[in-house]
Specification:
This protein has one domain: Hotdog Thioesterase (Thiol Ester Dehydrase, Chain A, Roll), CATH 3.10.129. The two termini are 25 Å apart. A hairpin with a 2-residue loop joins strand 1 and strand 2. It has a 5-stranded antiparallel sheet. It contains 3 helices and 5 strands, in the order ααββαβββ. It is 24% helix and 24% strand. It is an alpha+beta fold and 139 residues long.
């Protein structure tokens, strides 16, 4: 359900977005963020496992702030096609709720789906997938 119809996302959007993030967004570039998929209302992104992003546990697990950053980024990008100008318009997160259900010990892959896009507020639901310390897949 949305009050606003999304703009079309061009086929080259994934490459353009990846290039922009690598060149202009130092923090996401440092995290190794990769755009996997991007279409109107849906975004998939990955942050690869890296020891520098872990808690001091044995085995090491990804620090929760890394997961919440990934959630924030993919949730926001999924909403961009609903903006009047998806490239130039500013947007900011007004609420972010994260439920950590299991520890992550591998690459983090987040999938965002737009739940609602209104004239001033949008909502995305995001699931993060990763390997657990036991080697299982965690959501």
């Amino acid at each position: 359900m949305s009050d606003v119809e999304p703009h079309d996302v061009p086929d080259e959007a994934v490459a353009m977005l990846q290039e922009y993030l690598e060149d202009e967004h130092t923090f996401l570039s440092w995290l190794g963020f990769t755009v996997e998929e991007f279409e109107a209302g849906r975004m998939v992104g990955t942050i690869p496992f890296d020891e520098k992003l872990t808690n001091p546990t044995e085995p090491p697990t990804v620090q929760g702030g890394v997961a919440s950053t990934l959630i924030d980024v993919v949730g926001g990008i999924a909403l961009r096609p609903y903006l009047a100008d998806p490239v130039e318009d500013d947007m900011a997160t007004i609420n972010l709720t994260v439920n950590y259900l299991r520890p992550a010990a591998g690459d983090l892959t987040a999938t965002a789906e737009v739940v609602r896009a209104g004239n001033s507020v949008g909502v995305s639901a995001v699931e993060v997938e990763s390997a657990t310390p036991a080697g299982e897949t965690a959501l």
